[in-house]
Design brief:
This protein is of the alpha/beta class. Helix 1 runs antiparallel to helix 3.
Length: 184
C-alpha cells in the first residue's frame, strides 16, 4: 500500500495547540497551507521534545563557522502565532517522529508517522521491515524564523498545564489535590 504523504513545503501556519482543560488536554501539531489543514495528535512530551530539539538544531547552526544561513537567536516578533487551533480533524496519533535540517532550502524538516498498534499482526510485520513503514505520514518543512517561533509557542503551550505541587512534585488538578509526601 503506498504511503499517503501530507506534505507542507512552505506552510502558512505550523503550530502546536491543545484542546481540553489542563490535565485532560490533547496536543495537536497543526499545519496549514491555503485551505489544506492537517492536525495530528501527539503527547505532551513529544511536543516538548520537538521544541527542544528544534532550538538545539538552530543554536548549532548559529555556531557553525562559515555558516551561510541567517538563523535568528530569538523569536522574530512578526512570526509569533498565539491564535487558537483551526478546526481540528485528527488525521492520526503520532508515534515516531524525525527531525532534520535541509541546507538546500534552509529549512527545518519534521516527519511524523502514525502510532503503530502493537496488537495488530499487520503492524507487527511492518515493524519487522521498517519501524517507520506506515500508510500515512506528515512532512513539514519550515524556515528558520518560523521554526524558532514554533518552538517558542510549543514551550509556552506545554508549560501552560496544571501547576506543580511544591511538596510532592505532582500536578495539582482543578478539583483538588491529595499530596503524596515524598519518602525520606
Amino acid at each position: 500500500m503506498p504511503t499517503i504523504v501530507h506534505e507542507f513545503t512552505w506552510p502558512d501556519r505550523v503550530v502546536v495547540g491543545t484542546i481540553g482543560v489542563p490535565g485532560e488536554r490533547t496536543f495537536y501539531l497543526q499545519v496549514r497551507t491555503g485551505k489544506q489543514i492537517v492536525s495530528i495528535a501527539l503527547e505532551k512530551q513529544q511536543s516538548a521534545q520537538l521544541a527542544e530539539k528544534i532550538d538545539e538544531i538552530l543554536d548549532q547552526l548559529i555556531t557553525l563557522e562559515g555558516n551561510p544561513f541567517s538563523v535568528p537567536t530569538g523569536t522574530p516578533i512578526e512570526l509569533v502565532d498565539n491564535d487558537q487551533l483551526d478546526s481540528v480533524q485528527e488525521q492520526f496519533r503520532t508515534g515516531t517522529m524525525s527531525l532534520g535540517w535541509d541546507p538546500t532550502t534552509a529549512q527545518i524538516v519534521v516527519e511524523a508517522y502514525p502510532l503503530v498498534d502493537a496488537d495488530s499482526d499487520d503492524d507487527l510485520d511492518a515493524l519487522d521491515d521498517d519501524e517507520t513503514d506506515a500508510s500515512e505520514m506528515l512532512l513539514v518543512r519550515m524556515p528558520v524564523g518560523t521554526a524558532r517561533a514554533f518552538a517558542k509557542r510549543t514551550r509556552e503551550i506545554v508549560g501552560a498545564g496544571r501547576p506543580i505541587c511544591v511538596i510532592c512534585g505532582r500536578p495539582i488538578d482543578a478539583d483538588g489535590h491529595t499530596c503524596a509526601m515524598p519518602e525520606a
